[in-house]
Amino acid sequence: MSQQQNHIHYLYDQRGKNDPDSTILANTLDQDIQTVFNSPDKFIMELLQNADDATDQDQYIDVNFQMADQYLLFSHTGKHFDKQDVDAICDNAQQHYTAKKSNLNKTGYKGIGFKSVFVISECVYILSDQYSFRFDRQRWNLFSTSENRYPWQIIPIWTDNWQVPKVFGKLNDSHVNFIFHIKQGTILTVHQAVYSLLTNPYTILFLRHIRQITISMKNQKQYIELKELNSQHSYQLCINEKEHSRWFMISKQQQISAQIRDQLQDLNDHQCPLKLKKATCDNLQFAVQLDSNHQVKSINNSKLFCYLPTQVHCQLPFLINANFLLSADRVQLLSNIWNVYLFQCIAQFHIESLQMIAQMEQYRDNVLTLFTDTLTPPLHQSFIDAYKQAIAIALHEIAFIPSYLDQSHLLKWHNAVTDNIQFFNRFPSIDPSFQTNIANYTLKRREKINKKFTQSTLAAKIHDYATQSCSQGSYQELLAFLITTYSQDHSSAKYYLTNKVFLLTINDKLVSNNGTFLPLYGDRQLQQFLSDLNANFIHSKLLDISGSKSWLESMGINNITDDVVVRFFEEWMLMEGPNKINEEMFHASCFIVVSLLSKVDYTLIKTGSILEKLPLMTKSQRYQPAEKCYLPSVLHPKFDVEKITGMNTNIVDDTVYSMLVSDKDKLRSTLISLKVKQDVAFFCGTFSKGSDSSHVYCFDQYYDTYIKDKFGFHGKYSFHIAYLPYMQFLKTESYAKIFFKYLHQNEDDIIKGMTNFKPCSRSNRGNYSHDHVDHYLKFILNREPCVQGQDDQLYRMKDLYITSIVDKLDDKLKRLVPQIKFQFDGNTAKLSDQLMILLGAQQQFSYQDIIKLLNAITDEDADRYYQIFQGLYKLILRANWKTISQVDTIQQNVIKLLASDQSRQYAASLHSLNEIILNAKRSTTSQVETIQRNSIKLLALDKSRQYASTLHSFRCQYIRLQHHPNLFHSFPDISKEDELKLCRLFGVQVVESRHYIIHYKQIIKYISIEPIKHLLKMIVITVANLNSIKDMKLLLLRWMSKLEKLQIKAVEGLTVQVVLPPCITFKVEAIISADQLYCKEELPLAGYINAIAQYVELPLEQMKMLQQLCLFNSDQEREQHLNFYYYDISAIRKLDHICLLQEDLQHDADLSSNACNHLQVGKILPYIQFIGFADLTTPFQYPYNVVSAGIDRMQNHLQDNTSSINSSHQRTVQWGEKFAYQYFIKYYEYKFKSIVKKVQSHETTQIEGMDKKGNPLSISLTWSNYHQENNHPFDMILIKNGRQIYMQIKSTDKSKDLFVKISHEEWKWMCQYRHNYRLCCIYNAGMREVAKPIIKKIKDPASKFFDGTLIPKEIYFKL
User: 1283 phi and psi, to 5 degrees?
Assistant: First the structure.
């Protein structure tokens, strides 16, 4: 037996043991084979790899695939198997050391690749030199069970020659032969796998030793062969002796950095083979495909190679081979530090390879075809990032792009520029410094270069190039190039070259297309003038270039048009105004502008144009802006200012301009287009952005005062402007008539506009708080005297009075105050008060005019004193004199006022008895003293006029004096408050109660108040704002309670003596002092009823009605009078039942809600015994169906237990309390979202938890009367979150009209606990079969009593 046979038998014995480990190993092998090599065609690559590794020398190996029947023969000319090879192939994953693990020139190292053949075959023969053995599954199936299996894939069986299949005849013993018995169902797959070598012959490119592959099938042989050509790095790939493709191969020995080697040591042997850990360098290979012309070409979707192809695609245009670390099936790259490092090396080698190719003349022009600076998925992101970082460094360091000037000179990536428009090919010397970076024009795929010289780049440099070409005499050639370059798309020329300075003008300067025009041939004068003003016209020579005119037009360069001429003149006005050039030269130019404007379309001059400020010569030989000038009479204006006013101010000098423009119609139209006025144009309407703003700015003083640099007018506001450029016009009656007629006709619009007028700050458009800015109309009418008065004098509008206030004066007095003139030539143009106020007219008399009017009253006016003084007093009260000087001036005048006897007396001699104390701020002492120093006569009570200082005014509750020359005359239409103001203003002596003594001889009798009470009951129904009997009762109760305090005494010889000097005594008819009414004996009720009305504070309308009722002798007549005015006299009967509180309620008669807050419970409670509440108007109502289920059960329980309740009333009360207790439990349970704790008994229930808003809530309800009535002032206590609420339950079996008795203690608790007390009313109590019970809850019932919500039916007092 040979040594080789013994070796096989030994391995057979070792591997073929029947133990648990063998079963585990068998299962592992099956699983690995099916998992790693799940595709039947992978065995081809594994066989090629094993054959490629089967040599220790640098020799070529041929391999052969041959198929016959169900067998496949694979043989190669490499090294035969030795003992170590046999051990490795019979091992699982090369668990023992083999040469492949440490040999970097060997591709395989994992020891599992050969196992892929077991996917297609279950019987494999290996015949190599002296070795002959097989792996046969069928052999071991005889001994295997489901529990005991053998790893047959690693158990060699010695095979004699007679046992080897003879389907391939005599085998070549010099070859290493493998015979595979193909499994059923995989024959077609094996055929396709073998044939795939022919369809994809690139597999052979990077194998170390295999140079020829022979495929024998169906008696046909085919060959794949890689031949090295004589030329450097070139290879020919042939199929059946015919060239399939040609390749340019580049390789590099890449030194492995120490840092990478250190990192590889941290990986285990499964992650990184030992041979790689020991390596110091590695080999990189690029395979670049050549086309039929032997030029490099790009490969689409190339795969990465690790000597054999993987399934990893990359975007590089050539094939890459490297020692990648792969997955077990050799198709995917592992994501680890080594592979990341390889991609960094690939990036560096990529650019180095391109540099080498660029230096080879035959490949130079295609160097960019092979360039790619970015990789994309599905490559792992770490590989993409590594490549990107490394190639950025390489591009910065390595030059590989051939230059245009010298192809042997290479440019770096960031310096290279591709000239896409062939500009430097046409102009090679125009920019030498930039030209050195231009890439060679013959380069393929130049578009890959980032920096490009395009139309946009040329446009950016066009000014410099145009300047250079002008100096070189090649400008026309440059423009011809531009026309050609940009002619395909005219829009691109305008896009790129707009605003670029490159166009040559007739002045031999370069300009942009903006503001540039084609030469003018029709009007040399206009062209010359515009040229002198720096207008730009294209040089005529440029139009000789073919296609130049249309190209220039596409650039927006056209013949100058009328609107452009106008716009140019406007710009000239802005830039070259009289402030910037010699004034004389400027005015001379203005004449030429007018002449030229007459030749264009004048309608093109828009409103607001700066040309409206063009200086024009006027007849006064001065220059004025056109907008401020007027047409002369000779040019037929609509409003002939020259003729109407007789002035030559701002009238255009037609003689001068007629020499420039002979056609008068053209001259007129031209001047009008410049806003020279042919009319005094009134503007009335909404001012917006489209309005003629010149109407605002025409008045210099207004402009300088308000508008200039300060304010503007916001477009959203409407305002109206009457255009009035010169105040002198308004002084002319013919113009004033037109002006005021216009205001009168447009009054509504002007009022609306002036009301809405608001300026805005120029610095803050949103600020409209500048109320001190006057409207334009108000401003001009108050700037200087310009408005004609009735006396034909001129006034400012603020010195005139509105019509309505003047009309209140007597005809004699009207002539003393200034009034506006509205009558012109028999026509009336009267303005309303509202408009006059907006224009600044006064709506109250000044103190000077008041003094003048008072002093103008003479004794001749005695029969009209009453009307005159009453009217003047009302006007004085309307005035608002705030300054000390105004009041001082009044008091310094000696003014006579009207006394009570109708005489005129000095104000200082008058007295006034006035009971009103004013709350308003009084004038200072100095103000009063100054008024009193005036000799002013006022009306006294006797209707005479007396000096104010001699009059008196009494301050008491009520006084009725007989007429006296020293008593200030009062007027019914002037209130006591206003009378006191007048007295203080004029210095009338106001007599207070402490300054006089009441005298009478004796008391004749006491007068009963009962008739007065009955009159008040009639009066209360006439109060307008009382809507119910309840309201009437409350008001009447207040009157009655005050009336009860008053004692009426009829006395004899009633007088009042003033104790202050001069101690005057006045006869008195009636007076009230300290709740005592004194009246003369014979004085009827009508004589002192006003005293009663003022004492009880009757409203003015009710006082007048009371005076009327006193004139009747019977109640029947009085009721007929009330019925005549449609008052409801039946309400008087309803008021008869009211019971008046007397002494104890006299200070609390006003039962409003505010009064309740100050209620003194202790004073009232002891006297209240019983209150019956007849009405519940506003309680909360809870429908029965809220807790219907619980209540039904409770009703059944109550019905069953009512037998023990004796009386019907007690049964209703008990039923109602039980119902309320159960109801409130159900009601508050509904308030909880979640209940944490609940304790419930017959008399107490406690619930704790969270309410529906998520806040803590605790409820405790106690029924204090559960066992028996305890006579507490409450029936239940509710504690909600610590707040204690007392509830009293009142029940009735009726559905409405619940009358309840409130005990003394219950009333006391209601008043004491207020908002924490509830009165709960149960309706339909115990009436389950008839109707559902209803609960009404009244919060704070005590306040409801005092504010009138709860009306007592009866009230009992213990007196």
Answer: -90, 125
